[in-house]
Every structure is written in C-alpha cells, then in structure tokens.
Amino acid sequence: MAENEFSSSAYNRFLNEKKLMGSKCKRCGANHLPLRPICTKCSGNEMDLVEMKGRGKLIAYTVISVGPPMMIEEGFDREHPYCSGVVELEEGVRIPGRIVGVNVTEPDQIKIGTPVTVEYQERVRRGEEKKTFLAFRAL
Ligand SMILES: [Zn+2]
User: Fold this and answer.
1) How far is the CA of 27 from the centre of ligand 1 (A)?
2) What is the 3-state secondary structure of 21-40?
3) Which of 67, 104, 126, 133 gives the lowest tally of CB atoms within 10 Å of its CB?
4) Mean pLDDT over all residues of the chain?
5) Is cis: bond before 107, omega within 30 of 0?
6) Residue 129 — pLDDT band, cuts 50, 70, 90?
7) What's the average model confidence in pLDDT over 22-49?
C-alpha cells in the first residue's frame, strides 16, 4: 500500500530526519501540523508540504511529577518533574511537546509567551527502533 504523503507516519519519518514538516492548504493557505491530508478550515484536500522553522512561543504548559510509564522509565518522578506544553509556531500552528530549559522546580516562574525553538530528542526504548520526539527549548 502506498503511503500517503501527508500521513502521520510520513510526519514521524520527517521528525526522524529532524525536519518539522506541516501541510499548507492550497485553497485557503492554512498551515497544519502534524501533516494533514484534509484542511480543517475549508476541507480542501490539496496540500503543499512546508517545513516549519521551529520557532515560536509557549502558550500553555504544565509541570508533571507523575507521568506516563514512558517518562518514568526516563527517570522523571516527583523529585524530577518535567514540563509539557503547547507552542504556537511563527507559522501560526499549535503543537504540544516537552518544554526544556525551564526551571521545573519553580513552575510559577515559567512565563507564557517565552520564546522557544525546536529541539529533536532521540529515545531508544528496549526492543524498539530509535524514535525522535519533539521538544522545545526556552530561549
Ligand atoms: Zn483550507
């Protein structure tokens, strides 16, 4: 079966190449991230691939001390919380990701609007292929 150019597996393959690829609607110009084959704004189905610059600002965040097993396995716990957030990119799309470079021991000091830049994190879990995850570093 041919892989759709705008599928989530295509998106993940680009991530592994450290590229943040979205789709831009040919009809209304709306950007989408991750890749989407159909526009959520106008239902147009003709898309162009666009590479996002990966710069934006933090619009929401939460500091998590009891995370999912994947994060516990990485060593995050009550004493070592991590920050998860939503970033709005310069291209106008919003994307969730891990936020690094912020002081998670003082969550009140983390500011909405903090400029961030994309950071690709590679993780290898036992018995699995290397995967690249999206994170954003506070500037
Ligand atoms: Zn559209």
Assistant:
1) 5
2) EEEEECCCCCEECCCCCCCC
3) 126
4) 92
5) no
6) confident
7) 95
pLDDT tens profile 58-74: 999 999 998 888 888 88
Query: What pLDDT is recorded for position 1?
Result: 45
- Answer whether 135's CB lies under 8 Å from 98's CB: yes
Question: Both ends of the chain: CA-CA distance in Å?
Answer: 42
Q: Cα separation of 102 and 110, whole Å? A: 7
Residue 83, phi-psi category: left (phi > 0), alpha (psi -120 to 50), beta (remainder): beta
Whole-Å CA distances, 52 to 21, 24, 80: 6, 10, 31
Q: How far is CA 11 from the centre of its chain?
A: 11
- Distance of CA 22 from the midpoint of ligand 1 (Å): 13
Helices assigned H by DSSP within 7-92? 8-16, 69-73
58 CA → ligand 1 middle, Å:
25
Q: What is the largest CA-CA distance in the chain?
A: 49
pTM of the model: 0.88
Give the distance (Å) from ligand 1 centre to CA of residue 105: 42
CA 66, 108, 120, 54: dihedral to nearest 10 degrees?
140
